[in-house]
Specification:
Cofactor: heme
Shape: globular
Largest sheet: 5 strands, mixed
Keywords: Heme, Iron, Membrane, Metal-binding, Monooxygenase, Oxidoreductase, Transmembrane, Transmembrane helix
GO molecular function: heme binding; iron ion binding; monooxygenase activity; oxidoreductase activity, acting on paired donors, with incorporation or reduction of molecular oxygen
Family: Belongs to the cytochrome P450 family.
Membrane topology: Single-pass membrane protein
CATH architecture: Orthogonal Bundle
CATH class: Mainly Alpha
Length: about 500
């Protein structure tokens, strides 16, 4: 009996010792080895303090960027730590989110070399973000890798072909006019256009992508917005081992919201399946996904793509329009020019011919400049799935995460000149890169094969919505507006965008 007890105690001690050693290696051993390897490969950066890496410096309290004066010089206020580290280490360095190393890149030439070395399907997504953002995106196109990414991309691409986009135009017009009629009927002199436009683009993607009603679409939108706030507006320790345990409330809330959103989309999918029995599926995004499910697309893959595109399909466009309206409200000359161009090209008709939109040249310049100053996606992330040899002095080991600072490059005077923080749409008049000294320095929709698949829908929706607004209202900035851009996965105005509207 004593022998059995002794064996049991030894087994318990050995198990605890194993767990302790694994813990020590997870928190300190493996990160230190990785740190030394990166330094050996020519990659330097701020010294980490494991297991928190550089999080303590990144989370240091800074002066709240909130002002009635509108400055477009936003990089140093959004990412003060990156600005400090750039001054010390240049535009390429390694920093640490907990025990996860990230290669920071604000050098377009390095980005060009990496793009030439690695094909789209061989780029990965940082595992730390895939785990952390699973309730929101699952293994949808934004997070999928390798063969899964190729398969998903192949299925989804037809949803955004020119024929399908043209078919969406009437729904975009109809939904936008409903919003504008509500503005006029309300008699309100001041409206938070960020809230209104975000809700309207949510209605648009609900109808055009999924064929669902305003009520169902709003419910999904509200749940996704709550999940976005839970994941990106809290001080969670992303990248720190067992970080989720340290923030149980947010972890459980994110999981709960993710499951609720899954159930909403499962109901939407089930209703669509019942409605198309014995008939031809619709050619919207959900119809294409359901068609593919017959060839092996799982139900969870369907749900993940629905979540990914519902969020991405309305958020990017809504923010592009929102920031544009801020810029036009503070630059009345450009607001007048776009209004006149809209009347000349499209007229005041409620019916908009999609083919006419290509004639809105100045609007295209303004859109490009708005996306330069305020890119909806302020950064991009990648992961090396194999060793990448960049030069004799620089090699990037397999598994290295990368953080591409899009805002940093868009506001770099070395790339754009001393007027980099000024609103000058004319810089895009004769150059699709806006006069940027490097083509990879302007990335409003990402880069390479993983560039945003829905960008043509954004162009279409942006021009239709903005044209309808400009021909029905003039607007100025409200005295209550407080300029405070913030990153909550996307780049948003922290306190909305109140504008004073005047019907025309």
């Amino acid at each position: 009996m004593e022998t059995i007890l002794l064996v049991f105690v030894i087994a318990i001690v050995m198990a605890l010792l194993y767990i302790f050693c694994r813990l020590i290696f997870s928190l300190w051993g493996f990160p230190i080895l990785a740190y030394r390897k990166l330094k050996k490969n020519g990659l330097d950066g701020p010294s980490p303090w494991f297991p928190f890496g550089n999080l303590s410096e990144m989370k240091k309290k800074t002066i709240n960027f909130q002002s009635s004066n509108i400055s477009h010089d936003i990089h140093s206020t959004l990412f003060p730590f990156f600005t400090r580290w750039q001054n010390s280490f240049g535009k390429t360095f390694v920093y640490w989110l907990g025990t996860e190393p990230f290669l920071y890149i604000a050098d377009p030439e390095l980005l060009k070399k990496l793009s030439a070395e690695v094909t789209a399907k061989n780029w990965g997504k940082p595992a730390v973000f895939r785990r952390d953002r699973a309730p929101m995106f699952g293994n949808g196109l934004v997070m999928s890798e390798g063969k899964d990414w190729v398969r998903h991309r192949h299925v989804i691409t037809p949803a955004f072909n020119p024929t399908n986009l043209k078919a969406m135009a009437s729904l975009i017009v109809e939904t936008t006019i409903k919003m504008l009629d509500n503005w006029k009927d309300s008699g309100a002199q001041e409206i938070d256009v960020e809230r209104e436009i975000t809700a309207t683009t949510g209605d648009i993607i609900a109808k055009t992508g999924f064929g669902i009603s305003d009520q169902s679409g709003r419910l999904v939108f509200e749940k996704l917005r709550s999940l976005q706030m839970t994941l990106f507006k809290t001080s969670r320790l992303v990248g720190v081992p067992f970080g989720k345990i340290m923030h149980p409330k947010e972890t459980l809330e994110a999981r709960k919201l993710g499951q609720e959103i899954n159930q909403l989309f499962l109901s939407i999918i089930d209703e669509r399946r019942k409605s198309i029995k014995g008939s031809t599926p619709q050619c919207d995004l959900l119809g294409l996904l359901l068609k593919e499910s017959e060839r092996g697309f799982t139900t969870q893959e369907l749900v993940d793509e629905c979540k990914t595109f519902f969020f991405g399909g309305h958020e990017t466009t809504a923010l592009a329009i929102t920031w544009t309206m801020l810029l036009l409200a503070t630059h009345q000359d450009w607001q007048h020019q776009l209004r006149e161009e809209s009347r000349e090209v499209v007229g005041d008709n409620k019916e908009i011919d999609v083919d006419m939109l290509s004639g809105l040249n100045k609007m295209g310049w303004v859109m490009n400049e708005a996306l330069r100053l305020y890119p909806s996606s302020p950064n991009a992330q990648r992961q090396a799935k194999a060793d990448i040899h960049v030069s004799d002095d620089l090699s990037i080991p397999s598994g290295t995460n990368m953080w591409i600072d899009i805002v940093g490059m868009h506001h770099d005077p070395a790339l754009w000149g001393e007027d980099v923080n000024e609103f000058k749409p004319e810089r895009f008049k004769d150059d699709i890169h806006g006069g940027c000294k490097h083509k990879m320095g302007y990335l409003p929709f990402g880069f390479g094969g993983r560039m945003c698949i829905g960008r043509n829908l954004t162009f279409l929706e942006y021009k239709i919505v903005l044209t309808l607004i400009l021909t029905r209202f003039s607007f100025t900035i409200s005295p209550t507006y407080s300029h405070s851009p913030s990153v909550e996965l996307t780049l948003r105005p922290s306190y909305g965008l109140p504008l004073a509207l005047q019907p025309l």
